What does this fold into?
Amino acid sequence: MLEKPEHRGVLNQKQSKPVTRSEGQSGAPVVEPEGIVVERWGDRDVLDLVRDDPSAVISKGAVLFKEGDAADGMYIVRNGTLRIRSGSIVYEDVIAGGMVGEMALVEGGMPRTAMVYALTVSEIVKIDEPRFFSLIAETPTFARTVMRVLSRRLRRMDQLYRPDKWT
It folds into this structure.
């Protein structure tokens, strides 16, 4: 199938049903075969906000965006798992209800700072700037959710680059 250039690996656009609540939120680390520990994050409440938004499916192994790419929106994972990495450093795996690319909307016009690719076939919802501001207007706590994601990732970077606490 043809791929849209701004969404490498996106197979098809479709309307879909929301993921059920029975699939729980997770923050539990997962030990990869290579011995690295990867955190998995998703917030099921975010899925309710985009339940009627159109989605796209990205194939396993496909790159959603690369470090340095132009940024025009963020993505919410409806189902599946995406990985965020920069070079050899894996930041986290994003599961249903998680988001990637949020810095594009917060910073406005800055290039991507990491690569995101699909570990599994994944369904994603693209959030452009107008939709981002409508989500904040409809649900002001969404802004705090985005800030919490940014804060959590910043703390993770601190752990990776300054492993000795308070040194």
Observations:
- Residues 10-161 form a domain with the Jelly Rolls fold (CATH 2.60.120.10).
- The radius of gyration is 15 Å.
